Amino acid sequence: MFLRQLEPRTARTTAEVVKFALWPLAIMTVLHRVLVKAVNGARTDDFTPVYNAALEFLNRRPVYTANFNWVDPHYLYPPSGTLLMAPIAIIDPERSRWLFILGNAVAVIIAGYLLLKMFGLALDSVAAPILLLGMFASETVTNTLVYTNINGVVLLGEIAFLYLLLKRRDAWAGVAIGLTFAVKPILAPLLLLPLVTKQWKVFVTAFGIPLILTAVAWPLAVDPMEFVHHTLPYLMESRDYFNSAIVGNGAYYGLPGWLVLILRAAFGVVVLVSLWLLYRYYREDRLFFFCTTSGVLLCGSFLLGSLGQMYYSMMLLPLLMTVVLRNSVMRNWPAWLAVYGFMSLDSWLSGRFPATGRAAEYMKTTLGWSLLLLVICAVLVVRYLTAKREGRLDQGIDPVFDERERETVPVAS
């Protein structure tokens, strides 16, 4: 009887075909990324500076001593983040790194599960293996694991924040995002969501958690003021290496300051127009509004801010997941061309065409983020103009769908 359970089944429906094909691919990709690529590591090593800082913190020695004249990864977390990271230095560096990799991989998987729940999709739907394979085949998850940084846990904090916000468990939503603030403020733009929906309890815990952790960490650290005087000024600067933001690529390619300013201003307008249309016409559609607006806010901050790195794109997963919604702004090919730019693991460096290949490699993330923002804005503006022309703005700007249409992404088989 046991052996019969292991007998391969023949798929009877299209959904079963997709699931039978993708689950083995997804699971083996996860194992490969975690056990091979991540354990092997790479020249870029985000973990060692964090481990060393945690070790120094536990031994009551200075933490903020990085030489920012070097381009190697630096330790940049505030004292509250140092406090949270300190336990990783209790064991030896190698095993600690392996546990850190495993923790981030598990965090990404849990985040994916919460995403499925947010969109009403079950684990036995075709969306589950597609999402798992897409996440772990991407550059953003792969290099988060290979470089061994904290972004997988930050992603979990983001998805938990959105999930709890949708459930109106505001204080817990604040806890989820507040813990990420204690380490890095990358998700700060998302506080616009509870602000416009008047979910005020979020702010109590979102600010309270990092403040409490800072109050605990400050007297335990030997040099907390060095974070303010030494590290914080560096964080405020725009660097010309490993920086896909407009200002970073502008500096790398030597663009004049006025042109960089014009580009940032132009895309700032694109972001503002998108945000206004989303707020004006979609704020009652909470799932679509939260996930789409979060993508616009974060993508805009990556592109327009002082530092944008390709693996930050992991935080755009809620936006990408809206493709299962009928009114999604992601249901067009230019949007997914943009996704290729900032999610693909492909390298465009070319031995035959070195200059062109290097430009394509260094610019693909910037172009991907830029195209995504343009596509979202264009879709929303066209919807607005169409609805205005047809005299139905009071009913919203969604396209008029044929009621006979059926979703192409099944919840379950």
From TrEMBL:
It is a multi-pass membrane protein. The chain crosses the membrane at residues 98-115, 121-138, 145-166, 172-195, 202-221, 258-279, 286-304, 367-385. The keyword Acetylation does not apply. It comes from the Bacteria. It is found in: Cell membrane. GO terms for molecular function: glycosyltransferase activity. Keywords: Cell membrane, Glycosyltransferase, Membrane, Transferase, Transmembrane, Transmembrane helix. Its EC number is 2.4.-.-. The keyword Transmembrane helix applies. Belongs to the glycosyltransferase 87 family. This is Glycosyltransferase family 87 protein. It comes from Rhodococcus gannanensis.
